[in-house]
Amino acid sequence: MIFIRNLIVVLLALYFSSCDNLQKKMQFEFRKGDLIFQDLNADSISDAIESVTGGEKNLNFSHVGIVDINLKGEILVLEAVSKGVSINYLNDFLKRSNKIAVGRLRANYQNRIEEAMCYGYSLLDLPYDDVYVMGDSSYYCSELIYEMFVNTGDSSEVFQLNPMTFKGAKSGEFLPFWVKYYKDLEVEIPEGEPGLNPNGMFQSPNIEIVLPYGNHRFN
To answer: Which residues lie closer than 8 Å to 192 by C-beta, 6 or more apart?
Structure first.
């Protein structure tokens, strides 16, 4: 009898603990300037991006956007996607994939968010950078966020550029996907050119991961 009573107590404790954890997940509050890292796994290019940027930690993010909140309290995501730089509702963002993590700029960078968002809005409707080369008037997802901060506030960089690679970590050879991709674009593979990607941005010491990967219930 005592055993059954103890078992019931344990089961009840586990139940309420799981309910409490679920409630915490559901109560996550986005803030303006939060970065949403997304694991798309929707097409071959997403897989190709992840395969050359995941690093030793095998991260799986192929997209990133930045949060805005309008006067109605609606959560929006400013992002660079195939149609260009655009602003979309969070629900539409999550329809692509709800496998996400959220990063928040550390306190010493928070004062740059407002100006960075204004700069980002000035880039709306500019085309997507499908060549992944910085310095022109087109933008890929992490390039957009980098430019938003590097062009506003002081001259310090929130995110660092690193030489890009399109080679497999094990083979040291260009992945067949990227060979065909750039051949179709009729441009050289920008191996070694400065750039950044969602997985590298995710590991920046200047952000705090406030919602770890998989720790969410939005739908």
So the answer is: 163, 164, 165
Tokens encoding 146: 């980098």
Domain ranges of the chain: 1-28, 31-211
Q: Identify the CA nearest to 192 among candidates 133, 143, 151.
A: 133
**Confidence label for 26 from pLDDT (cuts 50, 70 and 90):** very low
CATH second-level architecture of 31-211? Alpha-Beta Complex (3.90)
SS3 of 92, please?
A: helix
Strand partners for 104? 208
What is the model's pLDDT at position 114? Answer: 95
State the distance between the two ends of the chain, measured CA to CA, in whole angstroms: 42
- CA dihedral angle for residue 126, residue 131, residue 132, residue 135, rounded to 10 degrees: -60
* CB contact set of 62 (below 8 Å; sequence gap of 6+): 38, 39, 40, 41, 45, 46, 47, 49, 50, 198
Radius of gyration over every alpha carbon of the chain, rounded to an integer in angstroms: 20
Can you tell me the distance from the alpha carbon of 193 to that of 69, in angstroms, rounded to the nearest whole number? 34
- Return d(Cα 139, Cα 119) in angstroms, integer: 13
Q: Where are the alpha helices (DSSP H) in the chain?
A: 2-26, 44-53, 90-96, 113-121, 141-150, 176-185, 198-202
